[in-house]
Structures are given as structure tokens and as C-alpha cells.
Amino acid sequence: MIRRVLVGGLAAAALLVPAAGAQASVTRAVQAFDTPSFTHLWTPRNVPAQVGDTIEWRFTQPGNPLGENSTHDVWVVAPGGQPQQLGASYLGPKASTVVSQAGTYQFYCSIHGGLAAGGMNGQVVVGTADPGAPVDPGTPWTDPDWVDPDDPSLPPALPNTTTAPTVFEEGDTTAPTVDLISIKAPENTVKVKVNVSEAGTLTLRLKLGKKVVATETVDANAGPVSAQIKPPKNLRDKERKYKLQVFATDMAEIDSKIHSVWVYLGG
Questions:
Q1: Are 150 and 137 in contact, with CB atoms under 8 Å apart?
Q2: How many CB atoms neighbour CB 50 within 10 A?
Q3: What's the average model confidence in pLDDT over 239-261?
Q4: Rounded to whole angstroms, how far apart are CA atoms 87 and 78?
Q5: Tell me: the pLDDT tens digits for 19-50?
Q6: Is 209 inside a domain boundary?
Q7: Residues 29 and 84 in one domain
Q8: How many distinct structural domains can be found in the chain?
Q9: Above 80 in pLDDT, residue 247?
Q10: With bands split at pLDDT 50, 70 and 90, how would you rate the model's confidence at 15?
């Protein structure tokens, strides 16, 4: 049985990998992860790549008790092609292939849901341009604050407004200032009291990992200002670590320095 699978896997790899002499631009890794919530997934599941890149699937999860006895395999469907097995955890710690044509490659574990919705699957979108440096999936089971970058339940990332806008005006060119007076986080709400130097708006922002998941703004006069913010309802089921960002914008649309504080909410 194992001999048949091994031969099939090697034949599949031969069909997917270009002829000898082709050089991959970079290697882009995908990690198998058996999560604390007993789900099985690949991370990342949406992989941008360039023709000639190597995609590497990693099966081993050192230090993850949920992954020690878990079995995974990886099958790939090339653009316009048929499913072909590349490897399995009982055959080796990794499996890889070179993506030799533009288009979308689907990949999946046949043991855990295949290509069905909610299954252990993903895609590699291959183009002719370089999509940027590869992202190392790391060891998510060692990070209690790990955020799944492909979790569909998370809100989409909001525009990054960290940098103050460029303002061309005559008159006020002085950025406002914000002084933190108090921050409290009872249950699922962060309550903030600050002192602002100018009238305008006060912005509170919650970030989970690299994503902005909530933003609140209030009109503010110069002096003490109170405001509060909550995470989205779908993120209130358990305790999570958020980065709270606070800044003011004056009437000339000049932003203050951003104050950042870690807070724990949920559960």
C-alpha cells in the first residue's frame, strides 16, 4: 500500500516539475497546522507566486502535541490539470514542486476535507511578475497570539492611516498632542480618557495582529476627552491580545503622534 502511494507521489512530482535546468526564483513555504480548536489547516492558504518559484509544503510540527500523531498528505491541481499527489507526512517531512505556468494551482490534504469548503486546502496564484518576498509561516503553534492571515471570519483590513496625510495650507501647521490619562478594559470594552491640545477628532483603533479590526472616532474639544471601543462581535468569544492605538486629528487635518498600548479583551 505504501509502495503504491510512494510511486504515485514520485510520478506526480515528475509531472509537475519542469525539466532539469529550470531555476526557481524563490521558495515559498506552506505549513501544516493542527490547531488548538482541533481544526486542520495550511498556512498561508493564499500564496502569490511567480512562474519558476518553488512551493514547499511542510508536514512536521515540532513541539505541537496535536500534530505529533497527525497524518497529512498534499495533492495539487495545476491550471487545467488533474489532481496529483506530491507527498505525505508518512513519506517525508516536506513535499515541493516548481510552478511552471501562470494560473491558479489548488492544493489540499485528501485526509482532511480535500477541496470541500472548510477543508484543509488552499491555492497558489501564479503570475509572471514578482509578487514580493516569500512569507515564512513559522511555527504558529508556539504563538498564543497567532492570527490566521486567511481566516474569513476576520474583517478585511482597513486602510492604513498610521501616517499623517500631507497637508498644503496656510495657517495652522502644528500637530496636535495627546496625553493619556487612563485606560480601562472591562470585559469587551476599552475605555480611554485623554487630554488633547486642539479641537478636532479623536480616533481609537484596535489591531489584531497586523489587521485593523475596529475603529471609533469622536468629536473633541481641547481638554479632557473620553471615548471607548469594542472588538467586533465575532471576536468576543475568547480572550485576545489587541494593540490599541490612539491619536488626534485637528481641524487642519494634521494628525498627532500615535500612542499604542496592549490590551486583553474577550472571554
A1: no
A2: 18
A3: 88
A4: 15
A5: 333 444 899 999 999 998 888 999 999 999 99
A6: yes
A7: yes
A8: 2
A9: yes
A10: very low
- Determine whether 107 is exposed, middle or buried from the number of CB atoms within 10 Å of its CB (0-12, 13-18, 19+): buried
* Location of C-alpha cell 478636532: 200
Full domain range(s) for residue 41: 2-142
* pLDDT, tens digit, 9 for 90 and up, residues 161-194: 444 444 444 456 788 999 888 888 887 899 999 9
Q: How far is CA 103 from each of CA 81, 124, 260, rounded to the nearest angstrom?
A: 11, 8, 41
All three cell numbers of 203, joined, read 480616533
Burial letters 194-229, b for 16+ CB under 10 A, else e = bebbbebbbbbbbbbbeebbbeeeeebeeeebebeb
Please check whether residues 127 and 240 belong to one and the same domain.
Answer: no
Q: What backbone phi and psi angles, to 5 degrees, belong to 233?
A: -55, -35
Amino acid sitting at position 116: A
- C-alpha distance from residue 238 to each of 128, 142, 187 (Å): 42, 18, 11
Query: What is the rounded distance in angstroms from the CA atom of residue 99 to the CA atom of residue 59?
Result: 19
Cα dihedral 153, 154, 157, 161, rounded to 10, equals: 150
Q: Is the CB of residue 7 less than 8 Å from the CB of residue 83?
A: no
pLDDT category of residue 155 using cuts at 50, 70 and 90: low
Strands 178-184 and 190-196, sheet pairing: antiparallel
User: Is the model's pLDDT at 16 over the cut of 60?
Assistant: no
Whether residue 44 is preceded by a cis peptide bond, meaning omega within 30 degrees of 0, is: yes
